[in-house]
Design brief:
The chain is of the alpha+beta class. It contains 16 helices and 14 strands. The strands form 3 sheets. It has a 6-stranded mixed β-sheet with strand order 6-5-1-2-4-7, sandwiched between helices. It has a 5-stranded antiparallel β-sheet with strand order 12-11-10-13-14. A two-stranded antiparallel ribbon has the order 8-9. Strand 10 and strand 11 form a beta hairpin.
Length: 498
């Protein structure tokens, strides 16, 4: 079966110089969207999209309809800011995403490109998780925009280490005003100061075009799609994006002017809607005065919704979080807070039955959303710490209900069907080959029994042990295969490596 895919971007300026990063309107995320469908469905989808464009011809009388028609103020407080005409526009656009449409979304921090180059010689160790330290440094640069540090990165590279130490020490002192609110941040900054020794100056800072295509390659593999074409919006830097896609081992890649193909314009519009929502959400969640340590929550304007505006959130939630879902439907770098936040907003809004339900307690919705977001960010942070290597199950294998892992053991797609390890007489000794988890973070182990690999589910009490084993492995010390004794005492489970 042949598939056609189309690529476009939002917030796509890869210029990350000093003036760009310190500008008031700078937005950190580089957002890409790819839409696609089976070739046999293209004519039908094209007719629907062109009808949509024709309906709103007044927005583009002389040119193609692109996301630039959406002004930032129209989404200042999310869909609550959308006027009647724009509500209809968004609604008609979102209705175009039927079950025939596949979507891939990638968000990458522009500052992350800089930090990765600065700290390219720093590696994970058993004592320090440099990936998470990079995350903390990126987040600090994005949120606080320390001018002296950014100036050192671009203009005085020999002063980078000193500027970083000064900045992190200063933040630690300021965080003492509200230690409970900034506990994790302070801990991260203290760890950075322990290992921060030297960084090499950057000769040339350029955005990397390749990562979004690496994720898309995984998306294709997961969906068992091998016969496809990818058409990319042609930009001024001709062929750079195409070459990056080919470098990521994608095939049948070419670029085209967006006015010549509706698929590119469809990807552009979705990238624009997501990008502007993410930018508004980021602006409202980040502190306006970084020198003041306080909780930042969304104002009531975000929740002053009509039923029609709430319906837009529900439709976008379906598109982003449910439609033709896959593990690699979204792909990010180490810093993905804004994508986590927009997904959280969509989930939060979608659980309401009506706008009246939101308004009945509108003054508390910001607090509720803040708690929900903090929980989501904490869970995302925990997953990053564990760094579980992902084995996406190709869609062609879903019909069999199971697959074989790298050790050769049968693993059920529904982990609840996986046999639970039996611990008779209080304890059992096993030769454990590997430790991991399923997509819902249920702990799994593969053991050797009579020379054959067998996968078992572990009790949830052993989740922390399993994730610790994975974390240690990712720090460079692989503990398996090893003999492990699993025991149960008074409803408590234990695991000890022999």
């Amino acid at each position: 079966m042949k598939y056609n895919f189309y690529y476009d971007e939002s917030e796509h300026s890869r210029s990350i110089g000093f003036k760009t990063v310190t500008a008031e309107n700078f937005y950190d995320n580089f957002i890409t969207v790819i839409v696609g469908w089976k070739s046999q469905n293209e004519q039908k989808i094209q007719e629907q999209y062109c009808d949509f464009e024709q309906k709103y011809i007044d927005r583009h009388p002389d040119k193609e309809l692109k996301n630039k028609t959406i002004q930032p103020k129209q989404l200042r407080y999310g869909f609550a800011s959308a006027a009647k005409g724009n509500i209809a526009f968004f609604d008609d656009f979102l209705k175009l995403f039927s079950n025939d449409v596949y979507i891939y979304i990638s968000t990458f921090s522009k500052v992350e490109y800089i930090v990765n180059q600065l700290f390219k010689d720093y590696k994970n160790s058993l004592l320090f998780d440099m990936d998470m330290m990079r995350y903390s440094i990126i987040k600090a640069l994005v949120i606080y925009k320390p001018r002296e540090l950014v100036d050192a990165i671009y203009n005085n590279p020999e002063n980078i280490v000193g500027a970083m130490k000064t900045f992190f020490k200063d933040r630690i002192e300021k965080n003492k005003i509200n230690p409970s609110l900034k506990e994790r941040e302070t801990e991260s900054f203290e760890q950075i100061l322990l290992v921060l020794d030297d960084v090499k100056p950057i000769d040339c800072i350029e955005g990397d075009y390749t990562p979004p295509f690496d994720g898309f390659r995984h998306f294709l593999d997961e969906n068992s799609i091998s016969d496809y074409s990818l058409t990319i919006d042609r930009e001024g830097e001709h062929q750079k994006t195409v070459l990056a896609a080919r470098k990521a081992n994608l095939k049948n890649v070419d670029d085209e002017e967006s006015d010549n193909h509706f698929g590119i314009r469809m990807a552009d519009m979705l990238a624009g809607v997501l990008g502007k929502l993410m930018k508004s959400l980021c602006k409202n969640l980040h502190p306006t005065n970084p020198d003041v340590v306080q909780k930042t929550i969304l104002t009531t304007e975000w929740f002053d919704l009509s039923d029609a505006q709430l319906a837009l959130y529900k439709k976008l939630h379906h598109i982003v979080c449910e439609l033709n879902n896959a593990w690699y439907k979204s792909f990010t770098g180490v810093y993905a807070d804004d994508l986590v936040c927009i997904n959280t907003l969509l989930n939060f809004m979608s659980h309401f039955e009506s706008a009246e339900e939101i308004k009945s307690n509108v003054n508390m919705q910001g607090e509720y959303f803040n708690a929900y977001t903090c929980q989501a960010l904490s869970e995302d942070y925990r997953k990053k710490q564990n760094k579980l290597p992902i084995e996406p199950v190709p869609s062609a294998n879903l019909k069999t209900e199971y697959f074989f892992n790298q050790r050769g053991a049968k693993v059920y797609i529904d982990a609840q069907k996986q046999p639970m390890i039996s611990i008779p007489n209080g304890s059992i000794r096993c030769k454990v080959l590997s430790v991991g988890a399923d997509k819902n973070m249920l702990p799994l182990i593969t053991v050797e029994e009579d020379g054959n690999p067998v996968c078992y589910r572990l009790p949830l009490q052993l989740s922390e042990w399993a994730f610790t084993m994975v974390a240690i492995s990712n720090m460079g010390q692989n503990l398996f295969p090893s003999e492990v004794v699993f025991s149960k005492k008074e409803n408590n489970y234990y695991a000890d490596i022999i």
